[in-house]
Amino acid sequence: MTSFQTTLPDGRDIHVVRGPNGSWLVKQGVNRLSAPSYRIRAHAVAFARAAAHGSRSDMIVHDISGLQTRYSHASLSYPSALD
Questions:
Q1: Taking the domains of the chain in order of start, what are their residue ranges?
Q2: Given the DSSP bridges, would you call strands 14-18 and 59-62 parallel, antiparallel or unpaired?
Q3: Cα torsion 45, 19, 67, 60: sign
Q4: Most Cβ neighbours (<10 Å): which of 38, 46, 63, 79?
Q5: What do you get for the CA distance between the two ends of the chain, in Å?
């Protein structure tokens, strides 16, 4: 049996969005990926980055005004060793 990697469809992208109470949420499609909401956007982005890197998905960050910034899964790398 041959194994191969596929690229996930757009519905699998990881999104960082502003929640109704002003907190930040991490979602994949219509599902929330993390139980907590984040008061600080950078914390939500860090969790989303790790989730997107692990699932080879793109990460899309929505800002307060509604603009979206897409980060390709290929750009979400981590160092293999820390100094």
A1: 12-73
A2: parallel
A3: positive
A4: 38
A5: 40
CA atoms of 13 and 19, how far apart (whole Å): 18
Strand order in the sheet with 14-18: 31-32, 24-28, 14-18, 59-62, 68-71
The band of 2, judged by pLDDT with boundaries at 50, 70 and 90, is very low
CA distance 75 to 61: 14
Residue 54: what pLDDT? 87
CB 54 within 8 A of CB 76: no
Query: Quick one: CA torsion of 66, 71, 34, 18, rounded to 10 degrees?
Result: -10
Whole-model pTM: value is: 0.76
